């Protein structure tokens, strides 16, 4: 937020300098209001658009990326590939960052499935072949769970996942020991119902703008 306020303040100062420099060209205060020409209006509009575009790209906290694909919402996200915890600890981590574990939908699922593979590959390269999480932490937590409504998994956003959707590794079956959902690193990051207590997945955090 501080960077956004700094940017807005800088842009405002820039506009004031433009106005001041225009006024300085007059030897004394003009008798009539300064006319806004088509050229000056166009320049001002371009400046506003430039500031707006800059704000869009700096809206996310440090280490977060902006998701703004026109479908599936507009938010910041972060794969925390080196943090292997259970679902509760992963959720607390995201909450401390100002968000929650991610809520996916079928519009943006393919994008995040591919990004998950990229993030895990990068993490493995950073750790080397003997990294501590290479075998045990292959997955990413989502916010979905089916507590109190077995096999009806719902994200924090309120969206429920069709148990027969193609986003699952296989159709969901009744299993009281698997109440949470991960993006399964052993199955191309499709969704899998998972034991919430296992410390075998990393957070995928989401912050809505």
From TrEMBL:
It comes from Potamilus streckersoni. Pfam families: Lectin_C. Keywords: Signal. This is C-type lectin domain-containing protein. SUPFAM superfamilies: C-type lectin-like. It comes from the Eukaryota. Residues 72-196 form the C-type lectin domain. Residues 1-24 form the signal peptide. InterPro entries: C-type_lectin-like, C-type_lectin-like/link_sf, CTDL_fold.
